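I'll show a sample.
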Amino acid sequence: MSEETPVGPPGGEVDLNFVMQARRDKLDALVNLGVEPFAYGFDRSHFAAAAVALMPPAIEGENAEGPKVRVAGRIVAWRAHGKTTFAHLMDPSGRVQLYFKKDQIGEPQYAVLDCFDLGDFIGVTGVLFRTRTGEVTVRVEEVQMLSKSLRPLPFGKEEVVDGVTVRHSAFSDGELRSRQRYADLAVHPEVRRLFRARSAMITAIRGFLNDIDYLEVETPVLQPLYGGATARPFTTHHAALDMPLYLRIADELYLKRLIVGGLERVYEIGHDFRNEGIDRTHNPEFTMLEFYEAYADYEIMMTRVEKLLVCAHGAVTRVLGEERNVTGVDGAKGEALPDFQPPFPRLDWLTTLSKAMGVPNVMELETGALAAAAEKVGVQKVGTLSRPKLLDELFQFHVESKIDTPTFVVDYPLELSPLAKPKRGNPALTERFELFARGKELANAFSELNDPLDQRRRFEAQAKLKAAGDDEASGVDEDYLRAMEYGMPPTGGVGIGMDRLFMYLTGTTHIRDAILFPTMRPE
């Protein structure tokens, strides 16, 4: 287990516990021996896995040596036996065993080993060979301290059970791992692999969109007006301009300005911010993908989303394999990655919710009846919720939470979709879809509204809700309306939460485990 530093009196020295004091004593010893404990660099020739791969397969009776290598990384195992010492060094590719022999490296260098600890970064030079058990090992000729670890990492123990290596974590508290992600990554290779998979997913999505002629752009994070979604914003103040600004809640309105300007296929992968609660699927700062395509409608965008998800799934699978091992701490079995093939099934919003609630048409219910129905299923503070919010809460309870495999819900009511075009043949509905899986939203999309007069009416309706106390409603964005008045072509648009998509693809149950540094209350 890791030892924490006791907090001393304000302004005074911190008393170190004996383990950390011992490490500082070794630091002093290194300095006294003329060894630089914090190096400037190291000329590494191979990563650990590449070095191991250099050795040919073992042949019985053969005692061949391999090439000389220079490897660097963190000490994760240490076994001293008098004049010989074995260790394991870990780098991003894996582990390699090290063999130190006093007669090989000489008395002065071997004496320095007494100042080494688990967690130290070192670099070694030596020749590869195989031990009697067949393990590829570096016979160390030179060793260099690269960075002395002054705080012990919470390394766990490993054992082989039925031929499978099982790790028993000494660092299993989820909140602490999120707070100290650096330690979590250092001691859990499967967490490093998880976040490499996230990076691969985003890279693959970029490649998919680039290949079909989408242009990646950047739009303002600080905005004079927030919009494009229904959410409470974070507010700040610009001192030089003496004006309030908002952290964006969505990229939408700026991206659609670019469609007006003639950039016909645009996308952005960036951070949005919503001043709302934190739970298993919500973090105030999150990563969104939004992409917009001129002359497309929501049917075309459904096809785009299906292909994009297949691409993302493939990228994650290539990194993690068919099973993820993030849950493999303390011996838990890996969870199979989801497998799906387009086309995804579709559900009609109005028909599905009305049937689930046992009414002919949920949109014909008075607001009071909706509030009563919401309160009955456990929705809190229904008296403060607007009619659209009540409908959304009822949909989440009766429909969304019960969808497991990827499914499109289509044709939302007009009052729930202020930025979508009316549905052809039924103006009470809109050409909107959301993609759900495992009870959570993965994507939201529209045939985008391109009528500036209709858009103004919807903005004004939102402004009335805001004036009535709905702190998630937006106001009237006159600049966006001006852009629309110049002429906006028919457009399809999609928003996908990258964190939730990654959670779905990897079976991760808490959003903090899909974000390197989630928002948390200060310690």
The first helix runs from residue 18 to 32.
